[in-house]
Amino acid sequence: MENYQFPKGFLWGGATAANQMEGGYKEGNKGLNIADVLPGGKERYNILLNPGFDFEIHPEKYSYPNHEAIDFYHRYKEDIALFAEMGFKAFRMSIAWTRIFPNGDELEANEEGLAFYDRVFDELHKYGIEPVVTISHYEMPLHLVKEYGGWRNRQVVTFFERYAKAIFNRYKNKVKYWMTFNEINSGLVMPIQGLGFSIQKEEDKFQPTFQAYHHQFLASAIAVKACHEIIPNSQIGCMILYAPVYAFDSNPENVLYSLQEEQLFNYFCGDVQVRGEYPAFIKRYFKEHQIELEIQDGDLDIIKEGKVDYIGFSYYMSRTEKKVKTDEEASQGNIIGGVKNPFLKASDWGWEIDPVGLRISLNKLYDRYQIPLFIVENGLGAYDKIEEDGSIHDDYRIDYLREHVKAMGEAIEDGVELMGYTTWGCIDMVSMSSGEFSKRYGFIYVDKHDDGSGTLERKKKKSFYWYKDVISTNGEKL
Fold first, then answer.
1. Is 33 domain-assigned?
2. Looking at residue 377, what is its pLDDT?
3. pLDDT, tens digit, 9 for 90 and up, residues 136-160
4. Active site residue 377
5. Which residues constitute the catalytic centre (predicted)?
6. Alpha-carbon gap, residue 429 to 445, rounded angstroms
7. By the 8 A CB rule, do 32 and 7 touch?
8. How far apart are CA 373 and CA 11, in angstroms?
9. For 294, which of 146, 155, 302, 355 is 20 to 30 Å away at the CA?
10. Is position 1 within any domain?
11. Distance, CA of 478 to CA of 474 (rounded, Å)
């Protein structure tokens, strides 16, 4: 097809996270969170994937780019004006849990934090931009990590419920679209970010990981029910990291292995949050890994009653698998594993580029769940160069996004119900996986660098004007 028909009211926009853009890490009575203790640079990647992290700040050893980030905390009006200039219909953002409850276990919310997001939401509405808010996006209160053991502890469900209800009540007239946990399934490979604990070497990872998931599913379901009661016209979704899994070849062993990997990583969390029950395939997995969940009376009823309204998901790449692989075959840069796909090129960070995989993903998700889908992250992390005249010609980013928007158009023609598209990092931010500023995703360049230097000046890239045209024509002009 050449002319794609996107639905009327399609939510075009951009996506961010509080911990990667706000800065002001100690301002407004904010408490410390997980992101505040993660160092920048190559060390972060190793910390996320390896056991034994101590959740402490070591200024003599590391830098901490999230502490200032791009200073959205003070510059939100300037940034939102730029989003409005692009024509955003929606802005996906997160609320920092520790701005609202600095330690996470307080009884009363922090007024300074609540007031900050009031100002942000008011500024968005001034331009007619709908906020799409993630309740928890990789920034669990550090106190809950250290004192309670993160999501392994059932008490955290109560703390999350208190937090969720506080923001629902405060912003019930300002926020219609919500999501509970960012990339909830990522805890299977990065429990530090999503589940709030580091697997210790002597500890069996399976039992604590899936017990923590049970608590998150409870918390999500409780939040969904509360959101519907407090904000009757709201829509609240889950959010998963989705990467379709291809078999490396037609060897049935590899096909079966890729199916099992896809079930666990792509569908386990979605099945519980969308269907309201644990999927059949997980029972065998639990049996084979000696996992016995502590499930209290009424838990499964709560999960059944707290089914989400839509699926938000991130899509960056596909994943190719074979049952037995060598180190030489491993796909570089892909934190979720796999082997190199000979048919795909990769980004500067080794993430394989596969726009057709987005169409495949949309069809698979919609076929499985039959509820609306929302692509809330998709983008290209790349090195950007400023020319002598100050311009930034990021045609590689435009090419990447154009092909993914085409894939969305094809999926809509396939019959998929798609609510919107918010590109990841609409403005340059700290990278989640690498802690770098040099890994840039934005339509807006921010003068901030890996060594901490920079003026924080904002500058429009070529892609800024391209995306403005895409939005103004509702996807007709690509």
1. yes
2. 98
3. 999 999 999 999 999 999 999 999 9
4. yes
5. 377 (nucleophile)
6. 9
7. no
8. 11
9. 146
10. no
11. 10
Strand, coil or helix: what is 82?
helix
| Nearest by Cα to 368 from 242, 215, 181, 210 | 242
Which pTM was predicted? 0.97
Identify whether the C-beta of residue 398 lies closer than 8 Å to the C-beta of residue 463: yes
Q: Give me the residue label for tokens 């896809």.
A: 262
Is 119 within a domain?
yes
pLDDT value at residue 334: 61
Return d(Cα 353, Cα 409) in angstroms, integer. Answer: 18
User: Which residue is catalytic, options 377, 387, 388, 403?
Assistant: 377
Tokens of 264: 């666990």
Q: For the chain, which residues score pLDDT lower than 70?
A: 1-2, 202, 332-334
* In a domain? residue 314: yes
Per the structure, the count of domains in the chain is 1
Which pair of structure tokens corresponds to residue 140? 């669990």
Which residue, 177, 292, 290, is CA-closest to 231? 177
| Residue 332 pLDDT | 65
Domain span at residue 97?
A: 11-321+352-472
CATH label of the domain that carries residue 171: 3.20.20.80
> Which tokens belong to 352?
């394989």
pLDDT value at position 49? 79
In the numeric block, which tokens belong to residue 252?
């049935």
Q: Token match 């509080």: residue?
A: 18
